[in-house]
User: Fold endo-polygalacturonase from Vigna angularis var. angularis.
Amino acid sequence: MALLKHLLFSFTIFIISFVFCYGSLQEDPLTSIYVHHSPSVDDGGTLFKNFNKQSANVLSLNRFEKRGSLKKVNVNDYGAKRNGDTDDSEAFKKAWDEVCDSGEAILVVPKDNYLLKPIRFSGPCKPNIEVQISGTLEAADDPSDYDEDSRHWLVFDKIKNLYVYGGGTLDGNGKVWWENSCKKNKKQPCKDAPTALTFDSCEDLTVENLNIENAQQIHVSFQDSENVKVSGLNVNAPEDSPNTDGIHVTKTKNIQISDSVIGTGDDCISIVHGSKNVEATNITCGPGHGISIGSLGAGKSKDVVSGIKVNGAKIFGTKNGVRIKTWQGGSGSASDIKFQNIEMNNVTNPIIINQNYCDKKKRPCQKAGSEKSAVEIKNVVYENISGTSASEVAVKFDCSEKFPCQKIKLQNIDLACEGGDDAEALCNNVDKLSYIGHVKPRCSKE
Ligand SMILES: *[C@@H]1O[C@H](CO)[C@@H](O)[C@H](O)[C@H]1NC(C)=O
Ligand SMILES: *[C@@H]1O[C@H](CO)[C@@H](O)[C@H](O)[C@H]1NC(C)=O
Ligand SMILES: *[C@@H]1O[C@H](CO)[C@@H](O)[C@H](O)[C@H]1NC(C)=O
Assistant:
């Protein structure tokens, strides 16, 4: 009897601990982020720390065990000419169909040059697929090749559990589009150009170690996706290339971007409507326009973003450092935002909120106090931000009179002018601004 009791007791404990461990893995939404093993995930701050330690090992073990058995589907075996001059799109499409239809397979792009017209790598696919890009993919640079869809070059869509990696290069050959952009050539109508690499409606996605350069417009876009891990991206385009955002995040939940170096002609990272739980760590930006939340509320839209954390960034010679930008007349909110551990070097607007953005060319700007709505901005923390400002105003909060920014915290801030002079902070319409520790500059008007 005693033995039976003992057994029953042990069994109960076993069941309880099993349920407990399994349950705790399930309930934290962040733990559902798929993580491929990466030695640097630990500098992602506290948010992801425990999860990384526990589950990354399990997941990478699974991945590792499967890896050896994945079927390799080499684009060269499907007729790719790989001389960089002949269109290889058909070979890529055929190889992709094979990978997607069979599952348990890797699309292999060896170290050669491939010329590609716009391609959609669409799912749904059978499980376990990878894309290993070691070579260079060159975008066709005749805009008429993009007649069917002038907004995209390479698209991965509707795929679950996709892993893209390989150290190769995607070259958007964007020069033709830049020259014809209305920002460069005022005679041209303003038209959107292709995004080099788009992930649309993907779930459990990992993108690692790729060079993406000279995009026609945006370099990499994540949209309508969930549980995304991005690391080791090198994004590069000239400072004067128009609208060439580095990484663009829209309607995407649970995305972690880390260990990436981004220098372009526009935003380093832009996070827009419908994005939630976005974390960026160890990011180097410059040149370009810095890290931006927004713009939000354009064309009177209702936009919501929340749970954004930028932790660990070096920002050099950019127009903005960390920015929140919303249009007059919009609605919705940007909330629970943290900018931490950021080094600024000669940044024109290191810390900036512009809640009153308007384009005078399009319509007259509303008078302060007459706003009917605004994208509300609340709970924003700036912590451990230091370095230099290229302008006298290192901190600028330009918030709406009727819908002030709420709960802004500045903690351990040390920003001076590039030449060494003291910098200023200009603050309009901030409700509950708090300072913790050393904060310089402080608002002259609160
Ligand atoms: C930060 O990212 C850079 C560039 O990818 C990388 O070389 C470096 O090792 C990363 N630092 C840490 C602490 O992971
Ligand atoms: C700082 O930035 C300004 C404006 O962007 C530029 O003119 C200046 O040369 C830069 N200074 C240094 C030391 O890089
Ligand atoms: C800010 O810096 C201090 C001192 O280096 C450090 O103790 C603290 O953890 C940092 N804060 C964050 C959020 O990393």
